[in-house]
Amino acid sequence: MKPTLTALHVFPLKSCAPLSPAEAEVEARGLVADRRWMVVDESGRFLTARKLPRLVLLRARAAAEGLHIDAPGMPALIVRALADVSARRRVEVWGSVVSARMAEPEADAWISAYLGFPAAFVHMDESAVRPVDPAYAQPGDLVSFADGYPLLLISQAALDALNARLAEPVPMLRFRPNLVVDGVAAHAEDGWKRVRIGGIEFDVVKPCIRCVFTTLDFGRGEFSADGEPLRTLLTYRRTPKGVSFGQNLIPRGVGTLRVGAAVEVLA
User: What is the pTM of this model?
Assistant: First the structure.
């Protein structure tokens, strides 16, 4: 099998449940609609399923009128940004400070009720600028509310090699990649510097260092009692900076990605 893009995953709200479309548009910040919304606390600091696992039970879908959200025990919601584009607040995500657009009060009341404490939705519109870490980027590179980079890629063989070591296999979505590639050796992506997928080129800039999020069952909104798969990954994927699994990408073009697209390793 030739190297092929076998899955696309979009997370419209940071830490929410995934969408897996057959195609997606690529822009400078990553896949269109990926992590353009985020939940923050009263201070404006981002909230993550690492500490609030029930966030992964939120199912979000981006639409022209706003973000459609469903959650267990809650009425369906359409989150709309305030009409006044100047209605903004300073928010923080992994040390980056962003001027994000505020949502309607009804939406903030909804997420506060779901979580049980005051919280709010914020939106990354075109005016919300968050640069990529300059140690790994070019001037002008931007990222969404993702942890640090526009896209994350993982080879299917990497997951297969992990599952061969586990008593209970885990799904790829435990690792929340945007792009899944088949037809290459396990962790082949660790040696890539530049790839072309469906005619769009990407720089492969940095390994993804994994955390407790990998132990979160997104179907139940609960952490695994046995600490897997992180416990097993520590036995063979440990690096000086932590457990590595997958690679972060920065796009060097825009266009449409489709499942089934050819993957070419350029460097």
Answer: 0.97
